[in-house]
């Protein structure tokens, strides 16, 4: 429900991190944004306001896309679920309020035959992620879990009189699923997931896993920047017109001022540097930290930065100016998710 925020920690963030990497974590997506888009102009509307055309989407498929401001900067990342001629839009909680306001206003312009309905208060959404998540998700499906493809979803009966939306999407690199349930049954579903073996995990642990996979953390990295500056250009389809496209093309032709890189610190660095901390080479500033976390599995501080083009490569040594500690740029992901070694069955 909007207005609520995700819990940062339930017990211990490192223990919760290990649950995600070795068992099954339960993520309560309090505050998630949900909008139902309907009408004969629904697909044209979504193609205009998002960076990906939805014309190719089939029923039961999900597409990830960006919403941009007119200047090409990132407003939010969304998941677009295709229900035939209607669509369900899912928005990460930190961007839900701004993106919901944006989409509702865009739908009210009269440019398309479309209705944009905010249904965020009608549902609870839970994520289950980890190598053991498929076994739990299977309990809610009448067919083999292997038949639910990545970025796919189904609706299925639950408790006789309720309907669940079950999707295969995630943010940790592990097997991941989401379950949407009417809000009145939210607590019952939460208890049932715990009884099945899922353990509640907070946003702090989730964000470490996101960083390890190099899934952009927009609430930390994207204030006022374009997709090029957070490595999300792969989510932009320049083959159709959308809000912010002209500005984005101009930005690319001019050359982004700085480019995103991943980095890993030496074991001498214990403190997590603040966003904006300067990076230097031979006393010359070449960029700044965008976001950083401590990875329990690697035993190192890892992060992202935006740097000058001539140092935007893996394997280069930079120095954190304020802490006088070395870091090394590296390719992503930082590690291989446990689920890659676990057969889906």
From TrEMBL:
The record places domain GCVT N-terminal at: 13-238
The protein's organism comes out as Kribbella albertanoniae
* Record keywords: Transferase
Which Gene3D superfamilies does UniProt cross-reference here?
Answer: Probable tRNA modification gtpase trme, domain 1 (3.30.1360.120)
Q: Which residues form a coiled coil?
A: none
Q: Which residues form the Aminomethyltransferase C-terminal domain?
A: 267-331
Protein's recorded name: Aminomethyl transferase family protein
The transmembrane segments are none
The question of whether Transferase is a record keyword is answered with yes
GO MF terms, alphabetically ordered: transferase activity
